[in-house]
Amino acid sequence: MIDAETGRSEKKWLSTFDYALNYQNSLYFTGDVYFYRVNDGVRYYNMFGDTIMNLTKNSVHPYCVIKSKDFVKKQELDGLRDSHGSKFNDFYNEIKGIYNIKHYVEWDNYIMFYLTQSNFILSVLLDKHTRNFIVANQFYDDLSFKTKDKCIFPIPILGDKLGFYAYVHPLEMEYLLKLYNEDCVSEELKNYIKRKDIKEDSTPLLLSYE
Questions:
Q1: What's the CA angle centered on 38, arms 24 and 88, to 5 degrees?
Q2: Within 13 Å and on the Cβ side, how many CA atoms surround 167?
């Protein structure tokens, strides 16, 4: 909590020891966003935390906790830091456990986010009402691409009552056009790329899923 007039910190919550395996640099910039705005507040999560928090004007409390035997342990992280140094770039390739909640979105009754495990990305889809969930290596967008072996995995960015939105990363635009030229995309996406004259340096493509 920061005083708006003086800029001084008045209160603090979510210690790194309790919620980030005591990793002080848990806000290392990876291109991800660690805050997600919802109607009743803000969801907050960090790189080595297993808990998605809900922040409101009046409270800070856990919203969703990830329970997995594969989640990175404090001992593993401490050992990597002792042998490689505290900089994330020096040891992230050797992390074996699950860590780093990323690309979090909510829409309708659903929550979706990604998890990092070693060099793999796990996709998680949770039904808020039934509490049932799916964990997959990667969700395949069969609405936009014809085959799983030739596709792009759009990055979720926002959800609302109609569905969620994802974008094609700028570094993937060249590959997207390659798939377009090889007739590997759906007719709808093909027509959109042609109509908008999408090129490699075009603004990242935003896709809507209802």
A1: 20
A2: 11
